[in-house]
Amino acid sequence: MHWFKDISIKRKLTVIVMATSAAALLMAGAATIIYERVTFPRNLAQHLASLADVVGNNSAAAILFNDETAAAEHLQALQATPNITMAQVYRKDGSVLAIYVRVGEPMTTLFPAETGVSQETIAAEHVDIFRPIFVGAERVGGIGLRSDLTEVKVRLGAYAQTWLAVLFVSLLGALGVAAVLQRVVSLPILNLAGIARSISNEHDYSQRAVKETGDEIGALVDDFNEMLSQIEARDGALTQAQGELEKRIRDLQREIADRQRAEQGLAEKTVELQRSNAELEQFAYVASHDLQEPLRMITGYTQLLAKRYHDKLDETAAEFIGYAVDGAKRMQGLINDLLAYSRVGTRGNPFAWAQCDKILSDTIVSMKVAIEESGATVTCDPLPTVLCDEGQLGQLFQNLLGNGIKYHDSGAPRIHINSRRQGAHWLFSVKDNGIGIERQYHERIFTIFQRLHNKEQYAGSGIGLAICKKIVERHGGKIWVESELGKGSTFYFTLPATAGS
Amino acid sequence: MGFLALLWVGEGSSLNGAAPTEYQLKAVFLMNFAKFVEWPTTAFRSAQNALTICVLGENPFGHDLDDVVRGQVAADRALAVKRLAQVQREDNCHVLFVSAAEKARTERVLGVLRNAPTLTVGEGDDFAAAGGMIGLFIDDNKIRFEVNLDAADRAGLKISSKLLKLAKNVRERRKP
After folding, report:
1. Which of A226, A278, A335, A338 is 20 to 30 A (C-alpha) from A451?
2. pLDDT score of A95
3. How far apart are CA A154 and CA A147, in angstroms?
4. How many degrees, rounded to 5, is the angle at CA A124 between CA A119 and CA A125?
5. How far is CA A15 from CA A171, A174, A311, in A?
6. Residues of B in contact with A61 (CB under 8 A)
């Protein structure tokens, strides 16, 4: 049956119709032939009985008058019935009066025994009939007939031939009918298959199969179309999403390009800025260094003037000279501060690994006098080892500790230094219990020469925190303060925890 | 008569086991003729009336005819045997046998019974020609008979075609 699975539905339907027709015809034909085979001998027996009655009745007188010739003549009439192979007329005592034998048949005795009742023997090859013969109510003898069954064979042969002809014609007709009727089933399926193939080839999901029938194929067409609608909707959504994605990618690429341009511009600007900054630092250093020489002359000669001519000048002149000396000294201080500030950028040492604990303790030792005078308490938690300019880091600690001690009004200053890891940085804090700083000044205090207090309140040039900021920034960190007025201040600064950043 | 090895007469017949004589056979013939002849109803006085076989004059059968006929039935009637010295219409014979010995009286007897419903059976091949209905004769060692259909017709007797088929010769009806 494997071949049957692979042939087209069209052919399958045709084959089914043909096979069904053939099977029905075969069964009908077989039934007819079997029926004929079974009933024919019986019908034949009945027919033979009638024939025997007629011939027997005619032979009655011949029996009574023992006329063998007449009896034989009566039997001879059976020649007209060619399927009768043998006939015998019996006397009343069962003896044979006359015999008829078809040409070529052997002679046997059909019903040898004396019998008064009808008998019927249906054998495979022949049918035997015995009928008693009466004259009035008196049984005078009997007659026996034997018929072969060639007629059955002939008729069955004829049936078979007819049936074969009918089979042939019917199958031809069935083929025609199947050719027409199979379209009812196969056409919608073929249409559906065609649409499916077309969709598969062209990827055009807007196509739809046409529903032609209300049967299962119609339902299949509906489901198929429904599926197509879903695919189409999904396809559309997908296409739209893809479009959006592409647009977003284009936007992103544009943005990346913009940023790259901006970064490049920034990098150029940074280089430019670094160059100009370096130039500026160099200028500041050179300027402040070169300013010292004429300033020393002013100071020296002014002091010489005051020393040599103090008795020739009046008090007012002495006072003026004092102002000039004082101004020169202040200028000297400013220049020193400026130099110190510019040295951070221009005269720094290369970075090396250093223990902050040791740097801090050295700083505290160097500030011993100031700490003892103010009665301050300095505490610290363990500090890490960092990559730094050791001298500058000491300066940083010194400035912050100095501020903690200096900006204090009552009681003993308490300063605590702490550090903790925060991502790629160490976060240092220097907490004091000093006067605090208003929020609005939290930025300003890191600007050079910015002071919040006058010289009479707290001495200083306003350079300390500016230097701190510069040192921290040189190390790649940030510095800021958290404070409120009267509640102490905490200075925070970060240093990179790893090399190279 | 040796060819008749077996006969078809009823059981208990005295003929059993021996070759039948000519008149034994002729007795059977007489009885069987009665079975193939139809008499007009006027031939019988009543429904119960027996069918009478008469033998005229000299009786060649002895007791054979009585033995053959005993217990036999023809046309639903019992059979009886009667011997007559003279023939009269009033004798009411249904079958009359005229033996060869009574040949001389044949013409007169037939004249008396003219058109009467009596089946006249005689011996010799001239009996039917003389106006008798059935004539018995010997042919090729066999008892044969001829039928004068005209005589039977005139007497109102219907002889079965089955019987006629066995007849050696049938004298047809004369054209009216």
Report:
1. A278
2. 86
3. 14
4. 90
5. 11, 10, 148
6. 32, 36, 160, 162-163, 165-166
B8, B75, B76: residue with CB nearest A63: B8
Rounded Cα gap, residues A238 and A236, in angstroms: 5
Longest Cα–Cα distance in chain B: 50
Highest mean pLDDT, choosing among A251-265, A299-313, B105-119 = A251-265
B136-167 per-position pLDDT tens digit? 998 888 889 999 999 999 999 999 988 988 88
Q: Could you say which of B8, B76, B166 has the minimum Cβ distance to residue A136?
A: B76
List the single residue in B6, B7, B162 with the smallest CB-CB distance to A60: B162
pLDDT score, position A430 = 93
Question: What is the predicted pLDDT for the residue at A113?
Answer: 61
Q: In chain A, what residues touch B169 (CB-CB under 8 Å)? A: none
pLDDT at residue A317 in the model? 84
Q: Please list every residue in chain A whose beta carbon sits closer than 8 Å to the beta carbon of residue B160.
A: 61
pLDDT < 70: residue spans in chain B: 1-18, 173-176
pLDDT digits 0-9 by tens, A382-411? 999 999 999 999 999 999 999 888 888 878
Kindly give, in sequence order, each residue whose CB lies less than 8 Å from that of residue B61, ignoring residues fewer than 6 positions away. Answer: B23, B26, B27, B55
User: Using one digit for the tens of pLDDT, what is the confidence trace for A26-60?
Assistant: 898 889 888 888 888 888 889 999 999 999 988 88
As a whole number of angstroms, the distance between CA A424 and CA A438 comes to: 31
A361: helix, strand or coil: helix
Strand, coil or helix: what is A481? strand
| C-alpha dist (Å) from residue A63 to A94, A99, A144, A430 | 11, 13, 14, 163
- At CB < 8 Å, which residues of chain B contact A? 4, 6-8, 29, 32, 35-36, 73-76, 160, 162-163, 165-166
- Between CA A363 and CA A390 the distance in angstroms is 11
CB A145 within 8 A of CB A87: yes
DSSP, residue by residue, A225-294: HHHHHHHHHHHHHHHHHHHHHHHHHHHHHHHHHHHHHHHHHHHHHHHHHHHHHHHHHHHHHHHHHHHHHH
Residues A1-22, mean pLDDT to the nearest whole number: 84
Cβ–Cβ of A70/B74 closer than 8 Å? no
Show Cβ contacts of residue A352 under 8 Å, excluding neighbours closer than 6 positions. A387, A388, A389, A390
Q: What is the structure's pLDDT at B121?
A: 94
Please choose, from the candidates A391, A453, A392, A385, the residue with its C-alpha nearest in 3D space to the C-alpha of residue A419.
A385
Question: A95 and B6: CB-CB below 8 Å?
Answer: yes
Q: In 3D, which of A334, A29, A309 has the Cα closest to residue A160?
A: A29
Beta strands in B99-168 (DSSP E): 119-123, 134-139, 142-148, 158-159
| pLDDT tens digit sequence for A137-152 | 888 899 999 998 888 8
pLDDT digits (tens, 9 = 90+) for B48-59: 888 999 999 888
Q: Please say whether the beta carbons of B117 and B42 come within 8 A.
A: yes
Nearest chain A Cα distance for residue B176, angstroms: 30
Choose the most confident range, by mean pLDDT, from A170-174, A302-306, A338-342. Answer: A170-174
Which of B7, B75, B162 is opposite residue A61, by nearest beta carbon? B162
Contact: B166, A62; criterion CB under 8 Å = yes
Q: Residue B172 carries which side chain, given as an amino acid letter?
A: E
Determine the residue type at A225: N
User: A94: which chain B residues are within 8 Å (Cβ-Cβ)?
Assistant: none
Q: Which of B8, B35, B75 sits opposite A91 (nearest CB)?
A: B8
